[in-house]
Structure formats: C-alpha cells, structure tokens
Amino acid sequence: MLTLELAGVSVRFTVAADGDVVWVGAEGSAWAVREAAPESARASGAAGSHGPVRSPMPGTVQAVHVAPGDTVVAGQPVVTVEAMKMEYSVAAAVAGVVATVRVRPGQAVALEEVLAEVHEADPATGDRR
C-alpha cells in the first residue's frame, strides 16, 4: 500500500510487482510502470520498420478490428483487450500493413504478448519495408 498526499488530499494506491513491471492501482484504475529506454534510443528509431502490437495488461481479447493485409495508420485500433473490468484499445504504433493477427476474441493474453504485427509502409510508394 502506498499513500500519496498532495495539497491536503490523500490517495491510497495498491502496488504489486510482476517481473520488471510494477502495477499501481487506485480508485478503479491501474497503471503498469516500467523502466523506459533512454530518450536517445527512442529518438534514433530503435523500434525498426515494423510494429508488434502488444497487450498492455494480462486480460481477454474482446475484439479484433483488423485482418492480415489490412492497411492501418499509426494510432488506429487493432485489438481491444479487457482487463480488470476495463477495456483497452490497443493501437498500431506505425502506419503500414497488418502482417499477422495472433489472437481471436475470447482468448486470454499475457502482459506484453504480441497480438498482431504491423509492417511499416514506405511513405513514397506504399510498399512494405
């Protein structure tokens, strides 16, 4: 249990560790906290030319919004996962073409499990890189 007090307002948080992820929850919401890559690694495009779409939490797939071969834009919903009675829309990190969809509605998924894979498209030609 963690209590944070700011300007006379107290909020109690429940904290749980799961490997390198720390879960923090309060008032019906939960957040996964993990160490981020250094800013220089993120800025250099270390993610490559494809984007695995990963589950932000352990949960159950509620909907799959794309199929292999579909074209998506960055930020477009790919899969909806339900966890702790909340739905999370998991979006494509890059614009491109859906290469694979690895889940189906009703399937249980783990934290960081790959749900789908998006291959980035060349902005000039639209071809996959």
Can you tell me about this structure?
This protein is mainly beta. It has 2 domains: 1-35, no CATH class; 50-129, RNA polymerase II/Efflux pump adaptor protein, barrel-sandwich hybrid domain (OB fold (Dihydrolipoamide Acetyltransferase, E2P)), CATH 2.40.50. It is built from 1 helix and 12 strands. The strands form 3 sheets. It has a 4-stranded antiparallel beta sheet with strand order 1-2-3-4, with no helix packed on it. The protein starts with a strand and ends in a 9-residue tail after the last strand. Mean pLDDT is 80; it is low at 38-49. Residues 38-47 have a biased composition (Low complexity).
Summarize the structure.
It holds the Pfam family BT_MCC_alpha. This protein has about 130 residues and is mainly β.
Secondary structure: helix percent: under 10%
Overall mean pLDDT score? 80
Number of domains: 2
Please identify the structural class as seen in this structure: mainly beta
Q: What spatial order of strands do you see in the largest sheet?
A: 1-2-3-4
Poorly predicted runs: 38-49
Q: How far apart are the termini? A: 47 Å
The number of strands is: 12
* Architecture (CATH level 2) name of the largest domain: Beta Barrel
CATH homologous superfamily identity of the largest domain: RNA polymerase II/Efflux pump adaptor protein, barrel-sandwich hybrid domain
Strand-residue proportion: over 45%
Q: What is the level 1 CATH name of the largest domain?
A: Mainly Beta
Gyration radius from CA atoms, angstroms: 17 Å
> Within the CATH hierarchy, at the fold level, what is the topology of the largest domain?
OB fold (Dihydrolipoamide Acetyltransferase, E2P)
How many strands, what sense, and barrel or not for the largest sheet?
A: 4 strands, antiparallel
DSSP helical segment count: 1
Structural shape: elongated
What sequence of helices (H) and strands (E) makes up the elements?
Answer: EEEEHEEEEEEEE
Region (Disordered): 38-60
Keywords: Biotin
Biased composition (Low complexity): 38-47
InterPro entries: Biotin_BS, Biotin_Carboxyl_Carrier/Decarb, Biotin_lipoyl, MCC_alpha_BT, Single_hybrid_motif
